[in-house]
Amino acid sequence: MAEVYKAKTVGVEGFEKLVAIKRILPSIAEDEEFIKMFVDEAKITSQLSHSNLAQTFDLGKIDDTYYIAMEYVPGKDVRAVFERMKRRGERMPLQLAAFVVSRVCEGLDYAHRKRDASGRELHIVHRDVSPQNIILSYEGEVKLIDFGIAKAANKITKTQAGILKGKFGYMSPEQVRGLPLDGRSDIFAAGVVLYELCTGDRLFVGSSDFSVLEKVQQAKVTPPSQVEPSIPLKLERIILKALAREPEDRYQHAADIAADLTRFLLDSQPKPVTREDVGAFMKGTFPEDERREGATPIRRPPPRIDEPSRKPAPRIDEPPPPAPSKPPAARRSGPPPPLPASLTADL
């Protein structure tokens, strides 16, 4: 649907800033419905300014192709973290998992409560909270990205009845059933991410998309402590409340689950979890990528083949070099003179 590039914007006096450029794929660049969704994403995210949401800088168009210039976050998405830990037979430490999801929920709560310039509620619902859309930077930042299918009051496009948008394994039961959505749907999705980070296993899996959707709709959740016995009861209660099938039984606001996760962290260990802890974890998990990200390439301009070699200017007190002698008018007959020994040694 879209592709993302790492780019650099430059300005006066050597100003430089890394950005992420998201542009519509050429194959669907003329799809009017997708263009409207793309523009909607830019308009929604341009109104959001929160430390846990990737910022949008610009919406532009070049040669009939739209692009969005966004904040560039050097790091990895949570899916990459999950897969790396899975291959190692490990999982993210529980305290870090709770910290990450609490920050995601703080960003969600800000988006859910956002109002426009006139004071009207925007009723933003992300609808695609998933590991792929949560970035952890090498400095410990937690960023929720991609409001591409977000629901908002001022959107150009409206989702048609019976059309499912989002990743099936991270949908809420009401999203699968095609019911009206509010912020509690995002809370369920955040609960799925927290469950998977804490247990090291996927929650809703099946042999087909239909099978996955059926499991999501039923929302039968095995208590996480039965999968990973080290999960404390207090954390398990938070996870299960977020994953309640009925929205009325869940946390009603994303700030509520963020607050409970923060209290869990304060009660479970004397030293608070910080952004530096997340950064140290990311650098330790992806050392090669972090070094590559932080390396500054040396700029070596290519040689100019059309530019003659420059000779040093003669000193003022030196006499000018003698003028080259003119070649003889006629070529001498006979064999050419022998080459110097230094040039014939390798012949």
The low-confidence parts are: 155-162, 296-311, 330-347
Question: How much helical structure, as a percent, in the residues?
Answer: 25-40%
Number of helices: 12
Strand order of the largest sheet: 1-2-4-3
**Average pLDDT for all residues:** 84
Rounded radius of gyration (Å): 30 Å
Structural class: alpha+beta
Order of helices and strands: EEHEEEHHEEHHHHHHHHH
Keywords:
single chain, 347 residues, alpha+beta, Transferase(Phosphotransferase), domain 1, four-stranded antiparallel beta sheet, three-stranded antiparallel beta sheet, 12 helices, 37% helix, 12% strand, globular, disordered C terminus
Characterization of this structure:
By secondary structure, the protein is an alpha+beta fold. It has a domain at 73-286: Transferase(Phosphotransferase), domain 1 (Orthogonal Bundle), CATH 1.10.510. 37% of the residues lie in helices and 12% in strands. It is built from 12 helices and 7 strands. The protein has helices spanning 32-45, 78-87, 94-113, 173-176, 183-199, 209-218, 224-227, 233-242, 254-268, 275-285, 287-294, 341-344, and strands spanning 2-10, 16-24, 56-62, 65-71, 75-77, 134-137, 142-144. The chain has a 4-stranded antiparallel sheet, covered by helices on one side. Strands 5-6-7 form a 3-stranded antiparallel sheet. A hairpin with a 2-residue loop joins β3 (56-62) and β4 (65-71). α5 (183-199) packs antiparallel against α8 (233-242) and α10 crosses α11. The longest helix has 20 residues, at 94-113. The model is unreliable at 155-162, 296-311 and 330-347 (pLDDT under 50).
